[in-house]
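Changelog note: in this version the structure field was regenerated for every chain. One regenerated record is shown below for reference.
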Amino acid sequence: MPDVVAGAAFAVLAALFLAAQSLTVRVGTETHRVADVVAAMFATNLLVLVPVAAVSAYPTYALTPSAVAAFAVSGLLGSLLARFCYFHGIARLGASRAEPLKALFPVFATVIAVLVLGESVTPTLALGVLLLVAGGLGVVLDSRRTPATASGRRLWVDVAFPLAAALFLGIDPVFTKLGLAAGTPPLVGLTVRVGAAALGFCGYLAWVSRASGRAWRPRVNRWLVGASVANTGYLVAYYAALDRAPVAVVTSLLGVSTLFVVAGAAVFLQRDERVTWRLAAAALLVVVGAAFVVRG
């Protein structure tokens, strides 16, 4: 029981770190590019994860070629493409609206689990998916009525970014499970995942620099540093939670980050974002729906 309580505490801490990341990214992208945020985040992640994983898992890292490939694919999907899409969604829609849409990833994960892994659909799972979809529709409808967001076709383009992030995050666990099934320690797998994503990001930067004929130079400010520290804190707290509590408990509590983001935007980002009762209700539906999906 003490381990479960400690795991739950770490899960709530991870949710707070996630919310802090979203809010600082929102402020940081007002003056800096999304690529600047991603670069700062990868640098901070690797600075912390590489030495910690190297020491904690020594001398058995249990890295097979198949495990490395699985973690690399999960990194390209979850740590690179999902980050890019999610941060663009924050810059376009605001943190309070991008976060609930990104939190719809259990819908995609459920569909993939049913179609690819042959898992069955229980009534609890189906109810959770319906609540998630209702919450997502609520966010979109609220965005259409809010002058702070775009309208018409531009709004649907903006909404597509966090939804794409949800899709990539929904596919990601399939490859993560394959990597962990090989016996690789979770922290080592996480380091490989982030390292592969960072290499993919460097390849993207090289392509952009060659296409534009200009060398890309990252810029950073205190908000980007804060977002990077928050993201790294989330990763550490998340894995500490998984080490102490069941996945269902950790994932359910992690979903509370959606409410933290909406509340944080209402308090700290009043000048940039308008948090309505409709948005708060939609965010609550997403959190409850995610909890049902996890337990279904």
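Spot check on this record: The mean pLDDT is 86. DSSP finds twelve helices and no strands in the chain.
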